[in-house]
Design brief:
Beta Polymerase, domain 2; alpha/beta; 7-stranded parallel beta sheet; DNA-binding; 4 domains; 17 strands; DNA polymerase, domain 1; Beta Polymerase, domain 3; 5-stranded mixed beta sheet
Length: about 575
DNA sequence: GCCGTTTTCGGCCCGACTGTTTTCAGTCG
């Protein structure tokens, strides 16, 4: 959480420097560092200056500022900048279509520093008096102001994927000769996304009109021969780019991003005497294209193995590709079991047998039934007696079903003091125990971390469920020290869950990668509360791919015997 | 403000669309 605070301060510094018209490369340095810090897995406030400077993009000045923040809780440079402008000025900068130059003009020439003042200036015609401002610009700003009031901005990846799928289906029907692909953050599998990026390749004059006249278009933001943007109902922005078929690979590469990955790749191209853009890879000396049609050719020409889209985040994938050390990523087909599901015994919608058959239909060969424990009274959680009885029924039903093996488990609450909600002798009777937090989310970091570490220390805890408790776009993760949890899990042989509920996706990609790097096993589970829930497995697998995981890193890719043998309770027993 | 296979100075990714500009600046991705 402290990293995020530092990242936010650097971002604000960058914004303010931009309004001041400072050196753009200095501004970029702050933005790059902000991005790096936001995704760092180690707690930067605990790093020495030398450790900080070892991070790419952090030099003498920025390392000193991070140290300053760690020691004093603020950065003087940031405060000085804020004193030069009203803090509300940053709201203006974040409006669609308003950039730093416009903000500087608004503030410097008209004294406008809040959204309300800006709206008033538009309405009474004062905006048009400013240089470079006209009627259109005024309308644009009024629309952006209105949208800001209703638009949430980002969306869950699966929601965006669904909207993108419908749009693609429509476009393909309109222009069957043209190739359409989803690119951008959606192709990389990022957990939330701000817009839908579509690439079209081929020649067909109907592409752009078809796109802008799609029935779900709320309004058109921009329209040209090769690039258009629209706002869809529901708040999705969709962008379409059209390039010739011979540039398909280069355009796929370019528009998939991420920005950080592309900057590194272009840098590499330049060093090797090439220019890389969305049309192809060109020799700098002759201008001749040496790649463009196929995406993998771009990477090959630059001396790299093909990098899967999920890894293209500028987090070491280029170096790994150069050394031929990219992992063979897990895929949905590798998953054999699901280790987290609920039934009508607690807050699920289906009975044991229905869930078992649905799991089998979804292609799984084993399923752990893990209903809630008694602390979750609202969900009719199981006490020791009911848990044992429920386990007996799960095993009984499992014994007469073909094609699916049932495991009797529990999702046991971790109480606020770190003890488990059910007695050890009850947990010992079960096949698998998932331990989760569903209460007292607001504990301070030290207490929350201690609570989680106590749970890991319980010999009957096999898996930590949704370990950070975040709800995407809704609730921040609770203040658990994830690196400490990872170290403890590694030492104890406890697995960490990637929960597939689309608003959880918890662990997130960077934490799951940290766990993998430390040798912690991962379990990918749907947390299904109804028979349709097993379809969510693919989203957890996407997170796992973004975390560089291969099938060997994930326990539930094993056969049921292999899975059970990998559980902490069984591993420990043999080594004790 | 960062960084270095030619560099401790002089670079730093590149192109499309819009609006107000009569030749281009601002914004976005």
């Amino acid at each position: 959480m402290e990293n995020l605070a530092i990242a936010r301060v650097f971002e604000e510094i960058a914004d303010l420097l931009e309004i001041k018209g400072e050196n753009p490369f200095k501004i970029r340095a702050y933005r790059n560092a902000s991005e790096t810090i936001a995704h760092a897995t180690e707690q930067l406030s605990r790093c020495t200056e030398a450790q900080l400077r070892a991070i790419s993009g952090i030099g003498k000045e920025l390392a000193a500022k991070i140290r300053e923040f760690a020691e004093t809780g603020e950065i003087r440079y940031h405060r000085d900048l804020l004193e030069q402008f009203p803090p509300t000025i940053l709201d203006l900068l974040h409006l669609q279509g308003v950039g730093p130059k416009t903000v500087a003009l608004l503030y410097g020439q008209a004294g406008i520093s809040t959204l309300d003042e800006l709206e008033a200036a538009c309405r009474d015609g004062r905006l048009r008096e400013l240089k470079g401002m006209g009627k259109k610009k005024e309308e644009l700003i009024l629309k952006a102001l209105a949208e800001r009031k209703q638009r949430t901005g980002r969306h869950l990846m699966p929601d965006a994927a669904e909207a993108a799928g419908l749009l693609l289906e429509y476009l393909h029907a309109q222009c069957p000769e043209v190739n359409f692909s989803v690119v951008g953050s959606l192709r990389r599998g990022v957990d939330t996304t701000g817009d839908i990026d579509i690439l079209a390749t081929g020649v067909d004059p109907r592409v752009m009109p078809a796109f802008t006249s799609y029935k779900l278009v709320d309004r058109i933001l921009g329209q040209g021969d090769t690039k258009s943007s629209v706002l869809l109902w529901g708040g999705f922005q969709a962008d379409l780019r059209l390039v010739p078929e011979q540039s398909r690979g280069a355009a796929l590469q370019y528009f998939t991003g991420s920005k950080a990955h592309n900057i590194l790749l272009r840098d590499r191209a330049n060093l090797r005497g090439f220019k890389l853009n969305e049309y192809g890879l060109f020799r700098l000396d002759t201008g001749v294209a040496t790649a463009g049609q196929r995406e993998e050719d771009i990477y090959e020409q630059l001396g790299l193995a093909s990098i899967p889209p999920e890894l293209r985040e500028g987090r070491g994938e280029i170096e790994a590709a150069e050394r031929g050390e990219l992992p063979g990523l897990i895929s949905l087909d590798d998953i054999r079991g699901d280790i987290h599901a609920h039934t009508t015994a607690t807050d699920g919608r289906e009975d044991i047998e229905t869930m078992a058959l649905a799991a089998r239909d979804a292609g799984l060969s084993y399923l752990a039934i893990t209903d809630h424990s008694k602390a979750l009274a609202m969900a009719n959680g199981l006490d020791e007696h009911r848990a044992i009885e429920h386990a007996r029924r799960v095993r009984e039903i499992g014994s007469r079903l073909d094609g699916i093996t049932l495991l009797a488990g529990i999702e046991c609450d971790i109480k606020p003091d770190g003890t488990m909600d059910l007695a050890d002798d009850c947990l010992a009777e079960l096949d698998v125990v998932v331990a989760s937090i569903h209460s007292a989310f607001n504990q301070e970091a030290a207490q929350m971390t201690d609570r989680v570490l106590r749970a890991v220390a319980n010999p009957y805890v096999d898996i930590m469920g949704h370990p950070t408790g975040r709800l995407l776009l809704k609730r921040e993760p609770y203040k658990v020290d994830v690196p400490a949890l990872v170290d403890a899990a590694a030492a104890a042989g406890v697995a960490l869950e990637i929960n597939c509920q689309v608003d959880r996706l918890d662990l997130c990609d960077t934490h799951a990668k940290l766990a993998r790097d430390k040798g912690v096993k991962i379990v990918i589970s749907t947390d299904s509360h109804a028979k349709g829930g097993f379809r969510l497995m693919k989203w957890g697998v996407t997170v796992a791919r973004r975390a560089w995981l291969s099938a060997e890193d994930v326990l539930n890719t094993r056969t049921v015997e292999g899975f059970k043998a990998g559980l902490r309770r069984n591993v420990k027993r043999s080594s004790d």
